[in-house]
Amino acid sequence: MKHIALNPNMSTQGKAEPRMRPAPSPRRGEGWGEGVTIYREFGPPLPPPSPRWGEGVPPCRSDSSCSPTRSASKLVALLICSLALTCAASLAHAQGDAARGERYFVDCASCHSLTAGENGVGPSLAGVIGRKAGTLDDYRYSPALKRSNIVWSPQTLETFIADPQKAVPANRMPYAGLTNAGERGDLIAYLQKMSK
Questions:
Q1: Residue 139: inside a domain, yes or no?
Q2: Are residue 119 and residue 186 in the same domain, yes or no?
Q3: Are 187 and 169 in contact (CB under 8 A)?
Q4: What is the pLDDT of residue 21?
Q5: Among 160, 161, 120, 114, which residue's Cα sits nearest to residue 140?
Q6: pLDDT higher than threshold 70 for residue 166
Q7: Number of domains within the chain
Q8: Which residue, 28, 36, 49, 136, shows the most beta carbons closer than 10 Å to its own?
């Protein structure tokens, strides 16, 4: 004979298979030779149901601090502040720091030069901002980059530097991309400074 102990306060809906725990030793005269006693436990109890409107809510104070209008105005003010902070942070990120960008360009300098007419493994990046991709006469570009019709701007450089193969599939640049957005902003600020 098998005994199953269930907690009546626990729901089994949507739960995984119950966990087994060892059965207690039977007392003398109970369960001897009658098989194994199994107890099941159906996991942690479910959270209590959410209160109905008005239940469990503390009463408002007399100064109307919890009136719907006042709560909504606080929420709107909070949303406006968070939006302003987000915009300010993204603007600072978009501008970048050219001094830090110069340090990041050291990695790029193994293939690219900032001197006009000096190509390495990659083309010269002198005056890259505003130039159409794949147009230097003294460098052999991939057909994919020539067909891309990209004009290099801070936005197009941001996309390309993040993941060159995603931006222009089948290009010849053997670079996985710069994943950190702040570092990309700094590098682009340095390229803008050097393009002037």
A1: yes
A2: yes
A3: no
A4: 54
A5: 120
A6: yes
A7: 2
A8: 136
Q: What is the value of pTM for the model shown?
A: 0.53
Q: Band the pLDDT of 89: cuts 50, 70, 90.
A: very low
pLDDT tens readout for residues 113-162: 999 999 999 999 999 999 999 999 999 999 999 999 999 999 999 999 99
Question: What is the dihedral sign for C-alpha 54, 55, 59, 65?
Answer: negative
Domain of residue 159: give its range. 98-195
Element (H, E) at 130: none
> Which CATH number does the domain housing residue 189 bear?
1.10.760.10
54: its two tokens: 């008005």
Specify whether the CB–CB gap between 148 and 134 falls below 8 A: yes
**Residues with Cβ < 8 Å from 181, sequence gap 6 or more?**
93, 162
In a domain, 88, yes or no: no
Q: What is the pLDDT of residues 66-88, one digit of tens each?
A: 555 556 667 666 667 666 555 54
What is residue 40's DSSP assignment? E
